[in-house]
From TrEMBL, chains A, B:
It comes from Qipengyuania vulgaris. One of its GO terms (molecular function) is S-formylglutathione hydrolase activity. Keywords: Hydrolase, Serine esterase. GO terms for biological process: formaldehyde catabolic process. Serine hydrolase involved in the detoxification of formaldehyde. The keyword Hydrolase applies. The keyword Hydrolase applies. This is S-formylglutathione hydrolase. One of its GO terms (cellular component) is cytosol. Belongs to the esterase D family. It catalyses: S-formylglutathione + H2O = formate + glutathione + H(+). Its EC number is 3.1.2.12. The active site is at residues 149, 225, 258.
Length: 280, 280
């Protein structure tokens, strides 16, 4: 697999890369960003994955996330994938911001016409980690994962399905139970079909109900987030974790909304929290 | 003067505002951003002005500058104006990124057709400070100024012309001698006419040669900045400051370029430096 380096910018003593490659999984060109902090030659560094929300690409968090200072301080590599396949060949839902391009929901679609390209689960779980491991000074035994909104959903389900891979899991304003909210019902029914049992592998609360566990979890959620009541339903995650004995620190922040102003306020704290669990 | 609040987002315990108003100076609607950090009720806070570079609006630094953490830590209000008048009535130079809209160069134009709207000097020196003083908890006896590229030029000339207003002055990759470089020669000849004597009030090195002084100055410049040799010419500022006895800390940073990856790396340090001179 050949990586194309689209840009490289020095920041906080390290390097912010934006890269693309021809993905075998999605059958498209995929773009992602990687920040490599300053480090001793030959050192292997822990990796934090950041999965983005609806309408986003790698660029939103790369430009607005304010994570590089903390990555440099704690010596953590930061990887930000795209949220869906892209390109003229990829089917889309015109005028729908919450489905199709920019809205892959981190699933492997089983339904036509989505199943050919919309394979973000396999892309995030298999192809991209192999690419990162092969091209950056990453210690793949020390991985954490986080994300925002649809990407918070992605972080939760990816961690719940791969308990041995991630030592630390956090999320910002995640969609915690997509099978029970409009964004998720639209996406899962179209990508996976009408059989709701097939949705449970892509629903954090359902995965916990079905026995999946996490060793730790940090969630930040703003009280002024317009999507809290209808789409995010943080309370369902709190209840599921309590019932399952998952030690979850779910913090509600007065006055914060769904934007990167919220994420950037707390992403540095998440970095420190992950770094503590990933080791220096 | 009526301020319209376009957005308000909580961040780092304070509020990031984006606002617009009908400017008497430029005869246009002008947009700017203000970050107000958390503070005790009734407190008056020092103000740091940030002037942006070519092609930018208030939005670039607001989204990519990573200044809010340091503003919150040091208790500093951060104001980011636009770089030119905007609107369909405002004459522009089509297909020229370095002149017209987005390229006001912080001058009061004297030449047709620019002189009606391109009055960024008076806007930044008079109208906008009055607006900020009237609407935010700003202590206008404690102001600092900084900026990037064309905005670094703006910060330097504004401070050199108003020595009693600014207690602290810094810049990122400033255009230090616009009269001697292509960007500046194009802009100053069109805005001000061919008499180069009229340009000296808008050229930091010329202002210093003509007797203007600063009590302090911090400049950061990347060595991998594509514009360094032809447009920025940091060395001319170093020489002018040395000759004039201005205590200037001009730092060259190996491998950093002209982008917000560079600015965001050092803007927190600039905030701390300004805060020290502005008082808590």
């Amino acid at each position: 697999m050949t990586l194309e380096y689209l840009s490289q910018n020095k920041a906080f003593g390290g390097d912010q890369f934006v890269l693309s490659h021809q993905s075998e999984t999605t059958g498209t060109e995929m773009t992602f960003s990687v920040y490599v902090p300053p480090h001793a030659q030959g050192a292997k560094l822990p990796v934090l994955w950041y999965l983005s929300g609806l309408t986003c690409t790698h660029a939103n968090v790369t430009e607005k996330g304010e994570y590089r200072a903390a990555c440099a301080e704690h010596g953590v590599i930061f990887v930000a994938p795209d949220t869906s396949p892209r390109g003229d060949d990829v089917p889309d839902a015109k005028d729908e911001y919450d489905f199709g391009k920019g809205a892959g929901f981190y699933v492997d679609a089983t339904q036509q016409p989505w199943s050919k390209h919309y394979r973000m689960r396999s892309y995030i779980e298999e192809e991209l980690p192999a690419l990162v491991a092969a091209n950056f000074p990453a210690d793949m035994t020390r991985q954490g994962i986080t994300g925002h909104s649809m990407g918070g959903h992605g972080a939760l389900i990816t961690a719940l399905r791969n308990p041995d891979r991630f030592r630390s899991v956090s999320a910002f304003a995640p969609i915690v139970a997509p099978a029970k909210v409009p964004w998720g019902e639209k996406a899962l029914s179209r990508y996976l079909g009408d059989d709701r049992d097939a949705w449970r592998a892509y629903d954090a609360v359902a995965l916990i109900e079905d026995g999946a566990r996490l060793d730790n979890l940090l969630v930040d959620q703003g009280t002024a987030d317009n999507f809290l009541e209808e789409q995010l339903k943080t309370g369902l995650l709190s209840m599921a974790c309590a019932k399952a004995g998952i030690p979850a620190d779910i913090r509600m922040w007065e006055g914060y909304d769904h934007s990167y102003y919220f994420i950037s306020t707390f992403l540095g704290e998440h970095l420190a929290w992950h770094a503590e669990r990933l080791g220096k």
